[in-house]
# Entry
Amino acid sequence: MTGAALIECARLTKDYGVLRALDGVSLDIRSGEIHALVGENGAGKSTCLGLIGGRIAPTGGSVTIDGKVLKASPRASREAGVASVHQELTIVPHLSAQANVFLARPEGRLGVLSEARMRAQYVALCERFGVPAHPDVPAGRLSVAGQQILEVLRAVGSGARAVLFDEPTSALGPSERAALISLIRDLKAQRVAIAFVSHNLDEVTELADRVTVFRDGRVTRQFERGSFTKQDLIVAMVGDELAARPKESAAKPVPAAEEPVLQVRGLGIRNRALHDVSFDLRRGEILGIAGLVGSGRTSLLSALAGAQLYARGQLTVDGRRARHWPRTPAEARRLGLSLLPEDRKRQGLVLTRSAGENVMLANLRDAATAGVISTARLRALAARASTPFGFDSARLTTIARNLSGGNQQKLMLARWASARPKVLLVDEPTRGIDVGAKADILQYLEQLARDGMSVIVVSSEIEEVLAISDRILVMAKGAKVAELDNRSRDMTVNDILPIAFGVTQVQ
Amino acid sequence: MQVSANPQERELVDTASAGLPSGWRRWRRRESGPAQFLLELALQYSVIIALVVLMVVAQILYPGFLSVTNIWNILSQNAELALVALGVSYCLIAGVFDLSVGSIVGLGSLVAAQEAAHGVAVAFLAAIVAGLAAGLINAFVVTKLNVNAFIATLGTQTVFLGIATIFSTTTIFATNPAFLDIGTEKALGIPAIVVIVGVVFAIAAFVLHKTVYGRILFILGGNAEAARLAGLRVKAARGSVFVVSGLCAAVAGLLLATVVGNGQATYGAEYTLDAYAMVVVGGTSLFGGEGAIWRTVAGVLIIAMTQNLFESLALPGSAQDLVIGGVLILAVALDAFARGRRT
# Structure
């Protein structure tokens, strides 16, 4: 059912300074095949895709397409028929959604743009994908999920012979995710070669014809469809000893009834992205917010973080009613609400500065005397803040850009843990983070809650919300549609999804 | 997907979706009522509103302002500067600065005046070659030597001034009547240089907004990394805008020489900042990826008309400087305000 090898990687090696990201990896991708690359963060799978896509130049080894050795440039890969959906969004914010889809090859005749032809193709693509994304909206105004979809449309619409997906579904909600999966199947039927990196092992099991497992820059196993279980993959990814990690204990004691830390009444956003949301949050409680893409869950969180200019409502923190709804993140922070944003790289970290500085970013004053920063004190404070989250303090001098997603998220956690907000708002805590680190991050959030911080978590992965939350708010169409008790951790996705989809009416 | 419950918004959206299958909407676009829609529209075209207000006020203060003679005056006095601003617009949209345009204007005026004796075509050719060479040098320094464009052209600004001074330390006078006619002649009552610059603007607007090349400049300025990963020829595109601005500046120098009858190395000294002021007042972003030729036209008109009004009212030069500086800051502040509303 699958054809001959279209892309062949031979003994690929990639060094970043002294770090060997990829160590002699050989694999092939065939026409009409869905080939999954899995592994923990830093295992080398994204690097491998980057090499095939021409984004990264190899230190050793070669990529061959159709028997021809590929020159390492994005242009050469594109000309050889390889399209990539990158993990980092490559959107041009001021250009329209349509222009972004045709970024790599604006359609034209004699150099003059044919907007009408592009419009027709765009409409066809969107209909195939089942998303009515208006072509004239500037891409910068779309949500992360919307931008991700544009990236997918760009690659899929290019008529490529091979499409490389790096974490294509991590930013998508369930319905877009399902659409993407059926789209990938379509491509396969058209004998396109597909390689994808995913942390979602259910997706891998469901989709992949072959799975290549990476660990520490090497390929450890390869599986054919049907010859493996999720457990096999995990064992190959993390090694036998780690795979046997016991499931953490559930059921946490019911918090004593006391004055809520946070009271939200009648929260709305003038443009109706949100209306009339009310809830309480107690000390040490984790409140999960579930909902589909566009349900208002992210708007809710950003309103709490003071990032929604038009938010209106009544906010009471520790019994003290705020004079008005916080209009800036600084105001929210003064009230005791801090946001751990969804997009770590753009909204959270200063990528060009050291890990230590990033941890202390919000509390630089603590490391300074009369405004002069003491490097030693900064490092000591950063170490104290970050070691509880399993961050290796020897890496505090590393530039944030060079850390894995998991380690970057640990920096963010350390920053807010040391700032000690009353309420920590977390948007997509484990987006783009590998299986091992994912569990760690969730555990750290629980740790913070045990220490008395209240936490609100938004996640597109309902399983994650279920695993961590004491209570769950379900959002739909900008309103709160249900508030569920999950202290015993016995709810399942089936309890939530019908409500989020509006199938089940909640009394 | 949430569906709007507000019928008025639905109406606005459907108008915007003409030519699309039914059910499409401005996806996840901030839902807004008609008032907010109008406000956004006004902010987007604030420069046009400002221009109209300026014209009305000017006409009231100085009744001869909107007379045909005065309008042609304003346009012909600013034609060369507008051409420089056009080149600058290309650079800013592609996300780079070209600070050497002023020196290229001087160079262009010199070589054109020098070659005018051999005929108008030769003078044009000389200016074009000079502009091309200067643009290619800028492109080389930026894309091959990987020097930041701001610094690179800050350097070449001095280099080109030096080259022009070596070429001639004194003023070169042009005596060829055909050459001088360009600066003074009218075609159908329209000054010839206004016609020339107008045609160049029309072509430039078409290329920037309607061709694949123009789209690539917007992509490059909007997100250079996205352009690279998409496999676009980033360096070629980035280099090309220096050639465009070099050509515009050198031809502007030629036009200047036809008007004043001579060329001089230092002629362009004030052009650089004036041109940037015009482009920015028009609303083209200093950060790349955003802008339009009509915005540059509007910016040129706002500054040119303000200046003209002050001269007509015989206000002192210091007052002019104050107000023009104020207009520039006001325009950018308004733009920042509009941007804040959009995100």
User: Anything to note?
Assistant: Confidence is low (pLDDT under 50) at residues 1-18, 26-31 of chain B. Residues 80-292 of chain B form one domain.
